[in-house]
Structures are given as structure tokens and as C-alpha cells.
Input
Amino acid sequence: MNILILGATGRVGGHIVSHALHDNHYVKALVRMPEKLQVKNGNLTIFQGDVLNKHDLLNAISGTDVVISALNTDGTNTLSESMPLIMEAMEHEGIKRIITVGTAGILQSRTSPHLLRYQSSESKRNTTRAAQEHHKMYDLLRRSTYDWTIVCPTYLPDGEYVGKYRVERDFLPEGGVQISVPDTAEFTYQQINSTDYIKSRVGIAY
Output
């Protein structure tokens, strides 16, 4: 399979790259700073560029079967501004499948089901800026015809690989407090061969 990974130099993205290469997939990574991706593998092609540049996206996405976005907010609007460009590039190439890493803040609230978690009393965050960025991305995908899945981890320490965790469609598993980066990356990567959560958000926690 040909996989384009966005955010490949990030915490979750780096683990996804490792999983995909381990399984002998062909991996493309669009990154601003190639030197940050310290991986040497014949199946890995690194494109230097920016997800906010249409030409860079089209160049990297050509011939791809699935897009995995592990982009984070980093206090910018990159997440919401890049998604329309990613979708446009996917349309151009006839790609239907996209898997993204979101946040538990955009899952449904259990206490106020008409709200998302970040909009309700369930959220313990002092700021909602990152969740609002993810919400914009979710709205774009929700209104699209793509086969999307948004993996929504709660508190995300680097942690160790455990291999056992709980997932739930549209909600955070009850009592879920955290999930490690390696376990989040594993579940996200596994979605390339799964249709269980097409057009869904998935909460993930221990």
C-alpha cells in the first residue's frame, strides 16, 4: 500500500511511519524539515514542503492509496487551513481514505450529549483553542464524501507501548484518563486495513 503521512516528524506520526515501514508499505512523508525524520529505509520517500502549499501536497500525494494526518495544532491554524487543501488534493488524485489524529475534546459529551466534550463541563482544559482547530477539521470531514476516521486520544503522554486499550465510537471510553503515544499510533495505523470506523470519531483510552 502507498501511504502519505502528514506530521511524520511529530510524536504520533513518527511511530506511524515505523509501523508502516515495518509492514513493508511504501511511505511518503511531507515534512518541512527532513533532517528531523531520522529514518533510512528504501520504502520511505521524504518530500520537503508545506501542507499549506497546494503544489507540495499534490507532489507528495500522487499515487497514494491512503492519507494519514498526525498534524498537531502547535498554536497555529495549520490544522484547519490545511484540511481543505488536503481534501482538494485527494479529490484530484481520486483518493477516498483519510485517517487523522484528533483530540478527545471533539467527541460527544456524555453529560451534555448535544455538545462536544470541549464545549461541556467534561473538559478540564484551560483553553479550548486546540479543540476548536480540531472541531473545524471534523466539520470539514463530516460534510465530505471521503471515508474518514478521526482517532481521538485523551491526555497523551509519551509513555510506553501497552497494546491494550479501550475504544468507543463518538465517545471517550468511560473513566478514560490517558493513552500513550505508542498505543495511539498503533491504533491509528491499524485503521488503514479496517472499515470499522468509517465516517466516525473514535475515542481511545486505557
